[in-house]
Structures are given as C-alpha cells and as structure tokens.
Fold this sequence. Notes:
By secondary structure, chain A is mainly beta. Chain A has one helix and eight strands. Chain A is globular. The longest helix of chain B is centred in the N-terminal third of the chain and has 16 residues, at 26-41. Chain B: Pfam families: Thiolase_C_1.
Amino acid sequence: MTAPTDPPAAPKPTRIAPIVTLDAKSFWEAADQEKFIGQKCGDCGKFTFPPRPMCPHCHSLNRQDVELSGKGTVHAWTIPRHPHPFGFRESPIVAVIQLAEGIRFVSNVVGVGYDEIRQDMEVEVCFEPTMNNHKVPVFRPRSK
Amino acid sequence: MARTFTEAAIAGIGQTEFSKASGRSELQLAAECSLAACQDAGISPHDIDGMITFTIDNSDEVNLARCLGVKDLAYTTRIPGGGAAAAATIYQAMAMVNAGLCNNVLIWRAMNERSQYRFGQNPNQQMMSYQSGNGTGSLLWCVPYGAMTPASWGALQAQRYMHTYGVTNRDLGYISVQQRKYAANNPAAWFYGKPITLEDHQNSKWIQEPWLRMLDCCQESDGGVAILVTSLERARDLKQKPVRILGAAQSIPYNVEVISNYYHDDLTVMPEAQGVAKRLWKQTGLRPSDMQAAMIYDAFTPHVLLQLEAFGFCKRGEAAEWVKAGGMAIDGELPVNTNGGLTGEAYIHGMNSMAEGVRQIRGTSPNQVQRVQNVLISSGMAGAILSKD
Lengths: 144, 389
C-alpha cells in the first residue's frame, strides 16, 4: 500500500534496454554506472567502435576499456515518425555522434527541440534510464 | 568434370504475382517462381545442380529441391546483407558456372514480407536479425535509441549526404515520380496504372522527418523471383536469347556494413558501391557511358543517388539535379529502374529489379529502352553487367 503522503513515483522507463553481446558487455555495464567508455588498443593505442575482440590495426587482443571525453558533434540525424518508435512518448532525435576520440556512436540528442537540431552541433554525453534498470549514453548540447 | 573457365549467362527468369497477401506459403512462392524460371529457359527443374538465395530467405534448400525434384544438387550457398545480396547471387552463380562446378544454377528469393511479417515495423524477430550472416551487425547499437526500422537506419545513413549537397526531400520526389511512371506502364507492378505527382510525394506522410516520406520508401510485398544461370554455350541452345553476365562483383570495404553503415570515413559516399564499380569497370573494360540502362537497388530514394554517383554516372553531389533534368527517364541519359523499382513494382528484396535487367537485354521490358547492349544491375554491395550475346 502506498501511503497518501508519498510523492508520486517517477514514471517507469519505457526505453528498450540495450541488447548486450559478450564483446560489448563492458560497455553497457559501464553505462549502467554512468560511465561512457570506449575500446582502445592496449598496444597501438587506436580507438575502435563498435567493440570487437581484436584490434583491426595491429591485431592485438590487448583490449582496454577507457573512459571517453563524452564530447562530440552531431554527424547525422533523423526524427523517426512512422511507425512511432516503440518505448518513446515523443519521437526521439536519433543521431550519429562523431566523438572527439575519432569514433562514431549512434545515440539520441536530448534537450533540444526538433527545430533546434543542427548539423555538427557540439554535444556532450549524459545518461537516460531504460527498462530493466539499465542506462544508455545519450547526448545534450554542450554546456559553455 | 574438367574445370575450365566457362562463360556464364542468364537463361531464365520467373516470378509470381506481386501482392500484399499471397495467400500461400513462402516455400510455395519459391517453388512457383523457380519452376517458372526453368520453364522460361526450357530446362527441367530436375537438372538444377546449384542453388543460391539470401541468408534471410525462410525456405530451405532441401525443401525447395524436393518440390522441384532436383536430382543431384552439387552446390548450395547463401548471401548475407539483406537486399545487398540481390546482385551478389548473380555474381556467385557466375563464379560457379565459370569454375565449371555447376551447369544449372537456380537463384531464388521468395517472401511474404507484407502479409506474414514486416521489415518496417518496430522491433520484432526479423528486425532483431543482427546475428551473424546478415551483414547488419551494428543494428543492435541503434535499437535503444528508437532507430528500429530500415527507414530509420537508411535515413541516418543518407542524411549527411543530403545535408552536404543540399538535397531536399522534394528533390527525392523526382525519383519516386519517375519510378511510379514506369510502374504505371508495367502490368506486373503493384502500382500499375497508378502514377503519382510531385505533390502526391510531398503530401505523403513523414517516415523520417525531414528526410524520407512514405513515397521515398520501397513497398512491402509478397512474392517470389527466380533466375536460372547456366553457361553461355548452353544458353544459346535454350528457349530464350542468352543474357551474358559480362562481369559481376561484390565489394565490402573496411568498416562498411549494410544499412547501419555509419562507421566508414565519409558518410557522403557509398564505398561499397564505389568498390563494386571499380571492379566491374576493370573486369569488363567498359565505362558508365557504355550502359544503356541501370537497375539500382532503391530501398529508399537517396540510395539511388548515392549509387548513381558511385558508379560514375554523375559527379559527387550532382545526382539529384541529374534526376530532376530527366536523366533516369525512358528518353534520358540512363533509364533507371524501368520496372518501377522497389517503390513502384514490388519489393522482392531487389530480385525483381535484377529480372528487369534481363528483360531489358532481351527486349521484353514493358518500358523497353531502344538499342540496349549493356545493363548495369546494382544492389549496392554487389553489381553485374548484363549484355546481349
């Protein structure tokens, strides 16, 4: 029973939880802790995305998960209208984010209106909750 | 069997009707179009000895072979990458015949993609097909962000190109209008007798705002298409005029994948199509100006532009103006998707446009181009040049 004095519960997240494969497990576990990490080769130092077991440049298996700057730009974007994306009350802005580390990441741009989204606009990472108590990195306009 | 280089040719094409509800199983559609391709060629289905389809086709080789009474199958293979497989099936069939491994290679693709399941819907089992062999491994990175349909992935792939060159959604409308004009004259097309205007295009609802409208998207269709490949020598003795596979190629450059294709260096080009073009022109010694028509995979209209540029029919960023000036019309520089394409005729995962390439060489298209010697067929990651014997 809920006591009448309790504040109303926050609405339950409706965003679909990430599909976690073994090669991306550390990425999503870090996201749950609000850490945005990337795969850096422990030998040649190059960044790679999506995560993979082997460095494509030097073939090292020495994979390091390092925290990224979380800064990037909107490289491409769209607003899915039909069919309405499952798990979203309003259509999200979906974007390919060009990260400062030279890799790209598909995400959402939040905190901007549909008419405020701009090509190459500067954004920074933040996190949003999903179903089943997970979190995913999303991006908002960079604070000055 | 001695293995010597053998030239390959398309001897037969077959298709079912294209609908929104076939009312029968995908295996039955596969069997019907396969039989039609064999009858078109004048060979017995019992003599098929190679079979090729897409990784995501739901019919089993053995079950289809049992329908057709195939006596002794020598080679089977499947191609990944969704619709990118379309021209790659012809590439594989050519290679099998070239190597002397098969005499009669059957290619099929049959699906109830409208009545049984829909690629364009929110997450469902088909859409979650990021598993190995589908060539779409990064889709799982899109789903939590509301990019859950081919149109959303396609829009995101094309957007930087559209932005960079100032291509508007209205510009894309000229592609839709031209393809529906072709479809309107093609009795096999779902949109037979139903042309559209640019205003119809602009009044259709947003699928991906502000990039793709409903009339920029391929249809969802039920149906099947089959193609029978054999040696050029043998094809000359069969029922139809042979259609030579002059060259064929596949190209998957580093960091490229089908549709969720955001990780290669320059998102304003289609590196896979550039790779196919490079191989095809080198293999055949031909140039873009040697093509009299082209069938170009058009899941979404912007991808027609990207391929026109990749193959060198237009300079970078100029394809939209080229289309607007009538470049892909029947009397244009290069008639494109003369069956109506995947927006106008049907969406049998690109295979129906491959069959149209064959009809153009035979001279039997409902929108026949005059004096055709060579036709380019492209599904982005693969392509072929079909030629008159």
